[in-house]
């Protein structure tokens, strides 16, 4: 009921977030290329459906550490179908698919130096 000390309702359909599994990009990429890919995805994602507010929450969660990301998705009412956030739904049933490159770095990222 929102009383002090009450536990917020957690959707039983939503999974606890986990760190994405290591993955490899088809070719080695630099941090700048990865950032560009991420920016392009987030700029175009809302055009494929779903609510802008949910996309914004997903971006904030993708860029946060796991405990904060969990709080963000729970607060936004996002149903996490895959624990690595690659597949999520909003409360209306709209589907949100996130590519691995917005959630973590590839194992073949070119490091400076």
Your description of this structure?
The chain is globular, with a radius of gyration of 15 Å. Mean pLDDT is 88; it is low at 5-11. The chain has helices spanning 31-44, 52-62, 66-75, 100-103, and strands at 79-80, 87-89, 95-97. The termini are far apart. Helix 2 (52-62) runs antiparallel to helix 3 (66-75). It is 35% helix and 7% strand. By secondary structure, the protein is mainly α. 15% of the residues are buried. Residues 1-23 are annotated as: Disordered.
Describe the structure using short key phrases:
DC-UbP/UBTD2_N, 113 residues, three-stranded antiparallel β-sheet, DC-UbP/UBTD2 N-terminal domain-containing protein, 4 helices, 35% helix, mainly alpha
What are the SSEs and their pairings?
Blueprint: H1 31-44, H2 52-62, H3 66-75, E1 79-80, E2 87-89, E3 95-97, H4 100-103
Antiparallel strand pairs: 1-2, 2-3
Helix pairs in contact: 2-3
Domain DC-UbP/UBTD2 N-terminal: 14-112
InterPro entries: DC-UbP/UBTD2_N (IPR032752), UBTD1/2 (IPR039869)
Pfam families: UBD
Task: Work out the number of β strands.
Answer: 3
Portion of residues in beta strands equals: 5-15%
Terminal-residue CA separation: 55 Å
Helix content: 25-40%
Organism: Zizania palustris
Pfam family, one: UBD
Protein name: DC-UbP/UBTD2 N-terminal domain-containing protein
